[in-house]
Amino acid sequence: MVEQAWPALPLEEWEDTYHTLHMWTQIAGKIRLALTPLINHWWEVALYVNTRGLTTSPIPYKGRAFEIQFDFVHHRLELLTSDGGQRALKLAPRSVAAFYRELFSLMGEAGIDVRINPKPQEVPDPIPLDQDETHASYDPEYASRLWRILLSIDLVVQDFRARFIGKSSPAHFFWGSFDLCCTRFSGRRAPPRKGVITSEAYSHECSSVGWWPGGGDVKGPAFYSYTAPEPAGYGAQPVRPRGAFYQDKLHEFLLMYDDVRRAKSPRDEILEFAQSAYEAGANLAGWDRASLERSPSS
C-alpha cells in the first residue's frame, strides 16, 4: 500500500497561527482541567485527535456532559452537550481574548458555569488568556495541515502503543507543550521532583515518544523521545533511523519531521525511531522488557 503524502509544515510560514492555536487550545484544556477528576500524570487534561481535529472528549458537568471540539475540516469550534445541544464559533482570525469571551459566552448559553486560571502554561512571557490581544492569527490551510499530520502520527503511535502490555498512556495531545505523545512506564517509582506539574507527570520511570511543531533551538517540527529519569550514557546510544540525533539541551532524541515525510514510508521511520529510542533507555535503565512487551505480530 502506498502511503499518502505528508504535508509540509514550515514553522516560519505558520508561526503566528501556531501561537494563536496554542492559546486557544489552552483555554479549552483549562476548562477540562477545572471539571475533570485528576488522573495520574495529568492525563485528564489532554486533548485527543479525532476525525475532524482536536477534542476534549466528554467533560462531566452537573449530571450531564459536554465536549469542546476544534473542527479543522469545517474550521469551527463546536460546543456539544449531552442533552442534544450544539453551538459553534467560526475559526477565523481573532485575538485570544476575543476567543476567550466568545467561548465562555457559548458555554453560558448552554448553562455551563466554570472558572479557569487565565495564565497560560509552559510558555515564555505569558499573557493572560482573557487579555491577550497579541495573538490573533488563523490560517485555515495550516490549521488543516496540522490536523492531518497529527491524525497520521496518532495512528502510527497507536500501533507503537499496542506493542507494550505494561502501563502506557493513550496517544494524547498536551495543550501546555502543544505536542502529541504516548508514554510507557516501567512500573517503578522515580525520584521525587519539585513542581506541581513535574512531580505528578514524572512520579514513575517512563519513556515517551511524541511530535511537536518546533520552536526555540529546534527550527521546525520534530519527533522526540526521552527516558526519565535519564540513565547514564543515554545520549551516546545509537538511535535509528539515519538522521536521528541527541539534543543535549533538551535531553531528548530528535528526528526532524521533514526527514520523515520525505521518506519512502514515514510510518516505518516513526516506528523505527520510537522503538530504538525506547530500547536505548529501557536497556540502560534495566526495565523488565520481557514482562512489559509483546512482539508486533502477537
Characterization of the model:
By secondary structure, this protein is α+β, with helices and mostly antiparallel strands. The protein has helices at 11-35, 96-109, 140-161, 196-201, 257-261, 266-285, 289-292, and strands spanning 48-49, 53-55, 59-61, 64-71, 76-81, 86-90, 172-174, 179-189, 204-212, 222-228, 245-247, 252-256. The chain has 7 helices and 12 strands. Strands 1, 2, 3, 4, 5 and 6 form a 6-stranded antiparallel sheet that branches. The protein has a 6-stranded antiparallel sheet with strand order 7-8-9-10-12-11. A hairpin with a 4-residue loop joins strand 4 and strand 5. It is globular and about 55 Å long.
Q: Report the major sheet.
A: 6 strands, antiparallel
Gap between N and C termini, in Å? 22 Å
Which residues form runs of ≥5 with pLDDT under 50?
A: none
Beta-strand content: 15-25%
Shape: globular
Short description:
By secondary structure, the protein is an alpha+beta fold. It has seven helices and twelve strands.
Question: Which characteristics define this entry?
Answer:
single chain; 298 residues; alpha+beta; six-stranded antiparallel β-sheet; 7 helices; 12 strands; globular
Secondary-structure map:
Blueprint: H1 11-35, E1 48-49, E2 53-55, E3 59-61, E4 64-71, E5 76-81, E6 86-90, H2 96-109, H3 140-161, E7 172-174, E8 179-189, H4 196-201, E9 204-212, E10 222-228, E11 245-247, E12 252-256, H5 257-261, H6 266-285, H7 289-292
Antiparallel strand pairs: 1-2, 2-4, 3-4, 4-5, 5-6, 7-8, 8-9, 9-10, 10-12, 11-12
Helix pairs in contact: 3-6
